[in-house]
Every structure is written in structure tokens, then in C-alpha cells.
Specification:
The chain has about 300 residues and is an alpha/beta fold. It contains 14 helices and 9 strands. It has 2 domains: about 160 residues, NAD(P)-binding Rossmann-like Domain (Rossmann fold, 3-Layer(aba) Sandwich), CATH 3.40.50; about 120 residues, N-(1-d-carboxylethyl)-l-norvaline Dehydrogenase, domain 2.
């Protein structure tokens, strides 16, 4: 591929995205605060960038996959200086989960610097990221989509065009996070509801996965509970952030979101009890404490 791509953030999601691009033939420069992550990309055929600005310099497209809006702001316009290092006409793909308002403001700032932006958060987790089969929910001009078409094809199995206006991609991602967070909280409640009344956890899991009450989150995270494995694929603290984004957008738009609010409080409670960095299936432990029962691990 003739395009040079910079990737800022080589964590669980960004690494898979970068490696998918390398496999597709793109020239990829990666930066992460962890030097070991950069070396993993180099081992896969990518190139190391010593700084954020170095990753952005000469990049036709820069993918920003950091933790939150604060980091994205710093990477692009603050100490990182990525936007200032890019050539006019280049594209920033903002793929981290941020508030729609932040995505719109960022696109406006970039436009003022002669740069374009695709508001393109992703879903699918580390496994699908590594396989290049993510779902991308993106918004931006048709011209920007055309510039990024082959790149998106290399990273994703599904690319959903949500519209021309920046922010719509982030709205769609927040809808997904609202549902996923509420489903997770409901999963924890259901497990404890059954266990407290004498239902075998494995049997309950098998029945629900084959019944109308099941969900992807129940099936995936429920297995973590059965395995007593809280290795963080997606950590509890992610939901404090993402459901916080949902609730802030609800406040801006005068939307009542009671289910999201309750789920948010439960994840904050789990974080306050020291579970913030373990797998989000640990939400079940909050319900177990309230019910006075013991959960393994």
C-alpha cells in the first residue's frame, strides 16, 4: 500500500489494528508509552516511533487509539504535537471511545489546521482486533471515507457509515456501550439470583445461552465467572468511563437513562472496592456481597 499509517496507542486494541495493517501491506509506524509494545509491532513488520510526533510525521493517516479524551487531546494538540506534525490534507482516525461533543470539537480543531478526521470508534475486543475483524462505526465526509477505505477494510469485518457529521460515530459507540454495560450488570444480577436460590451456575449458564434471555455479554463474561478467571480482557474501570460518557450525553440532551445510571453506579462500586483493573465480569462480586454469598476468586 502506498499509504503510510501512524498508530498512537498499541494496547489491546491498537496493537491488533496496527498488525492487521502491516499484514495488509501498509507501512505502519507505531508509538506507545510502553517501549515493549512498540518492539512487538516492530517484530511483526512495523516501524518504531520514539515519540508521538514522529509517528505522525509523514503519515497519510494517523490512528489515535488511546484510553480517553484527555489522552487524545494531549496526543493531538498538547505535548504530543501530533496534529502540528502532520501535512495538510492528512487524516486523523479517532478510534478511542470519547463523548460525541469531544469528537465534534476535535474535528473542528483539525479542520482549522488543514487536516481531516474520521470519527471511527470500534467494537469487537482484542481477539477481533488481532484478526482484523472489528466493527467500525464511523462518520465523516465521503471523501475521507474514500481515503481510508482500504485501511478500514484491513482492520474490520464491518464498517458502518453513520453519516457525514463528526460525532455520529461516537454516538453509535455510546449506544453500544450503554447496552453492553447494562447487559453486564444484568448478567451479574442474574447469576447471583440463581445461585442464591440453589441453581447450579453451569446449568444456569447453559440454559440461558440457549434461551431468549441470553446475550453476547452473558455468554462471553458468564464463562469468565464459571472459570473463576478475572484476567482483564476488558476491565471494570472501562465502564466507569464509558457509561459516564453515556450519562453526560444524556444530560446534554435531557435524556433520562435510569438503567445506564444504575449500571454506572455498580461499576463505580466495584472499582471503589479494588476491582477496577480486573475483568468486568467481576461485577458479579458486587451482587454476591449484597446477597451475602461467596464467589470464587
Amino acid at each position: 500500500m502506498s499509504q503510510t499509517v501512524g498508530v498512537i496507542g498499541l494496547g489491546a486494541m491498537g496493537m491488533g489494528m496496527a498488525q492487521s495493517l502491516v499484514r495488509a501491506g501498509f507501512s505502519v509506524k507505531g508509538y506507545d508509552i510502553a517501549p515493549a509494545a512498540v518492539q512487538v509491532l516492530v517484530g511483526a513488520g512495523g516501524h518504531a516511533a520514539a515519540t508521538v510526533a514522529e509517528a505522525a510525521t509523514g503519515a497519510d493517516v494517523l490512528i489515535v487509539m488511546v484510553v480517553n479524551a484527555v489522552q487524545a487531546e494531549d496526543v493531538l494538540f498538547g505535548a504530543g504535537g501530533a496534529a502540528a506534525a502532520m501535512s495538510p490534507g492528512s487524516v486523523v482516525i479517532l478510534s478511542c471511545t470519547v463523548a460525541p461533543t469531544f469528537a465534534r470539537q476535535t474535528a473542528k480543531k483539525l479542520q482549522g489546521m488543514g487536516l481531516e478526521m474520521l470519527d471511527a470508534p470500534v467494537s469487537g475486543g482484542p481477539v477481533r482486533s488481532a484478526a482484523g475483524t472489528l466493527s467500525v462505526m464511523a462518520s465523516g465526509s465521503p471523501a475521507v471515507f474514500d481515503k481510508c477505505a482500504m485501511l478500514l477494510e484491513a482492520m474490520a469485518a464491518n464498517v458502518y457509515r453513520m453519516g457525514d457529521a463528526p460525532g455520529l460515530g461516537s454516538v453509535m459507540k455510546s449506544i453500544n456501550q450503554l447496552l453492553a454495560g447494562v447487559h453486564l450488570a444484568a448478567m451479574g444480577e442474574a447469576f447471583v439470583y440463581g445461585i442464591k436460590q440453589g441453581i447450579d451456575a453451569q446449568q444456569m449458564y447453559d440454559v440461558i445461552c440457549a434461551s431468549a434471555g441470553g446475550s453476547w455479554m452473558f455468554q462471553n463474561r458468564g464463562q469468565h465467572i464459571l472459570d473463576n478467571d478475572y484476567t482483564p480482557r476488558s476491565a471494570v474501570d472501562i465502564w466507569g468511563k464509558d457509561l459516564g460518557i453515556v450519562l453526560e450525553a444524556g444530560k446534554e440532551n435531557k435524556l433520562a437513562l435510569p438503567l445506564a445510571a444504575v449500571a454506572h453506579q455498580l461499576f463505580l462500586a466495584a472499582s471503589a472496592q479494588g476491582m477496577g483493573r480486573i475483568d468486568d465480569a467481576a461485577i458479579v462480586k458486587i451482587y454476591a456481597q449484597l446477597a451475602g454469598i461467596e464467589m470464587n476468586g
